[in-house]
Design goal:
0% strand, 2 domains, mainly alpha, 106 residues, elongated
Length: 106
């Protein structure tokens, strides 16, 4: 019984290692591909855009007549990001602070 468990754990470990190494082995020849490089440039921005649109849509729908608070906090986030040296943590903190202040004070 003990050898059976040791063999099962060993096989599971080898399969896990192979599955984790496989993407790197497949990716190596694809690094020269223009398509993969293009995906690497555009996908992060595209995914972020989709996330922002979905979150803003849901939050605007949830706020009802106070939808302008979401847009104001978004504008603050964008402005601080563009004029504050493109520091993500600073812009996120400013936008979040603006939103929390608007929701709690008005």
């Amino acid at each position: 019984m003990t050898w059976y468990l040791i063999a099962a754990i060993g096989i599971a470990g080898l399969i896990t290692l192979a599955l984790r190494a496989l993407p790197f082995a497949v990716l190596k020849p694809l690094r020269r591909s223009k398509f993969v490089r293009s995906l690497g440039e555009w996908m992060p921005a595209g995914i972020l855009l989709i996330l922002a649109v979905v979150v803003l849509r849901d939050e605007i729908a949830a706020r009802g007549s106070q939808w302008w608070m979401v847009l104001a906090a978004t504008a603050v986030t964008v402005a601080v990001h563009l004029f504050g040296g493109r520091r993500a943590l600073l812009s996120i903190a400013a936008g979040t602070g603006c939103y929390v202040a608007l929701v709690n004070l008005l």
